[in-house]
Request: fold
Amino acid sequence: MPETIKYTEEELVIMLQNRDQQAFSYLYDNYAAALNGIIYRMVEDRELSEDILQEAFVKIWNNFSSYDTGKGRLFTWMLNITRNLTIDTMRSKGYKKQAKISSDENSVSNLTDDGRITERFDAMGIRKQLANLKPEQKSIIDLAYFNGYTQDEISKEMGIPLGTVKTRMRAAMLELRKMLENK
Amino acid sequence: MNAQEIISSGILELYCTGLSSAAETAEVIQWAKKYPEVAAEIEAIQSGLEDYARIHEVEPDTSVKEKIFASIKIEKEAPVAQDSSKSKVYSISPAWKYMAAASVILLIGSLYFNFTFYSKYQSANTELASTQSALKQQKDLADNMHSDMGVMTNKNAMPVSLAPMPDVPDAAARIYWMQNTKEVYIDPSNLPKAPSGKQYQFWAIVDGKPVNGGIITTEINGKKVYVQKMKSFGSAQAFAVSLEDAGPEKPVPTKVMVMGKI
Reply:
């Protein structure tokens, strides 16, 4: 999707605070696929995923005044709204969280082969490097980030003491960041 | 805990992946305000996670965006309708009413005078134009007469009277032949009006042969033309005027009306 106009995050935030629909359109074009990817990995249902995405963006628009740049990146704030909404929806629909993250069947490469992933972010090299990420490191990030697991759930799922979730997560994130920086 | 301890503890990662408890989250926000390094580290972790999410993008159907925008547009229009329902009624004091009435009357009066004066101005303008045109006619006439007089009273002018042929006793014309410049002027005002489709042509008789001297203009816009310049002749034994069919000059005269020998 070619973008002719580029806004910085600061500009985008100011425009959105002024209820600029064009900026909102830009926001959607830039972040919808990433957010949808996260929802999809949580619900594993394309239609439901898009319903939640729609609801999330309406919520983002309506609650934009509550976004505080001091509390972190715009995407993180949007992601939190989206993830909370997804978790609520899954609970109300009686979904049971199932950890499939560590297994290969739900890996990034499988999804790519289906053509369901947009390659806007040049990810080829990173994906290869992500394969080098230790499975338990990838799992802990995915369980938290994509599945919305709590520390307690991660501890049980991975069979590690609750106290080590924090340090494991730190190690996994440092590894991931190193790979992303080397891209 | 100092900034470095906070960073290496892993709590920031938990915060960024949404794993921190409410108490921990509040703590992290306080630290981020206090330590720039902590804020920078949070930014870096979030940026990494954002990239990670981008690697996992799943493009939604195009209809999703349309639905979202349809939904936010409806919400946006709603408050506008509410505002218009609360429109206020303002009362106007009697003084302003009279002022308003007075200004309307003044406006109407002004419009009436504008119209009247404009009409007068228009008719004055028309009168002026017609007076000017009449004056110009008079001036043109005077100029013509002056130039005719100039020809007639010129000391070099040799007048030649052209006498009528027997069959047209009323016709007459007069020639003024300038002896210095050899210019020839004719006053055709005593020729009878040429019948329609006919015109007069001027001739000089040179060495016994008629030589074309040009078409005579007897009228311009219904006005009689007096003295006019014809072709110049250095030598001639006689001058004549003939009646010809309208059109180009003829090489030989058809019906001679008047003639005068030098």
